[in-house]
Amino acid sequence: MTNNFSVLFKKYSVPVLLLILGITLLGIGISKEQGPLFMTSSILMFIAGGLSLLYSSGKAKTLLLMIFGILAGAAGIITLWFSWDEVSDEITVQERNKLLETTAKQNLQDVVFIQKKYQERNGVYAGTWEELIDYLKNGTVDYIEASGSVPAERLIREEAKYIYGPSDNRALDNNMTELEAWKLSKWEGGPRYNELFRNFKRDTLQRSILS
């Protein structure tokens, strides 16, 4: 029994493998809408598998049939190789196009950002690429250097009068804002300066637009 199975396996394994491979490639080619090169290799592989199976089964004993099956299989493998190489090239092209598209979008976003900063600084947009490039190389933008956080405290009356004037009598129901904290951080003689504002800093500095 074991010997019979071994003989059958040796006799039919390669033809069946070729046939399965051909059917699989045909299925992939049809479902994925592959190009003619891929479909040709799939058909040749299927033919090679079918002819090899016929020859191995003894229903077709001609040497010509065997030779044709071998040639079809070899042609299918070669064609499949070229098809795979073609697919690899297409994938490379798609990846390159994707990179170019991403780079182009980023460049456009950078141009919009630089134009916006140029307009904020000069009141008008740059009229030429030379102006835009010069601003990119030499221009600066505002940079907020911050340390400390806004105290989660309400203003006391003395602090409110310092910020809003001596006649201010607004209700002090809410915690102080960032702007109020910044103003109080400049009042070194304030009643709670050392307690709340000594380490609070919000300074506007200039730095290169490229940084």
Key features of this structure:
211 residues; mainly alpha; 8% strand; 7 helices
General description of the model:
The protein has 211 residues and is mainly alpha-helical. It is built from seven helices and two strands; from the N terminus they run H-H-H-H-E-H-H-H-E. It has helices spanning 2-31, 36-57, 63-122, 129-138, 157-164, 178-185, 193-197; strands spanning 140-147, 201-208. Helix 1 runs antiparallel to helix 2. The mean pLDDT is 77.
Helix- and strand-based class? mainly alpha
Strand content: 5-15%
The dominant shape is elongated
Radius of gyration: 39 Å
Largest sheet: spatial strand order: 1-2
> Helix count, per DSSP?
7
Instruction: State the distance separating the first and last CA atoms.
Output: 79 Å
The tally of strands reads 2
Low confidence ranges: none
Q: Provide the succession of SSEs.
A: HHHHEHHHE
Determine the fraction of residues in helical runs and give it as a percent range: 55-70%
Largest sheet: 2 strands, antiparallel
Q: Averaging pLDDT over every residue, what do you get? A: 77
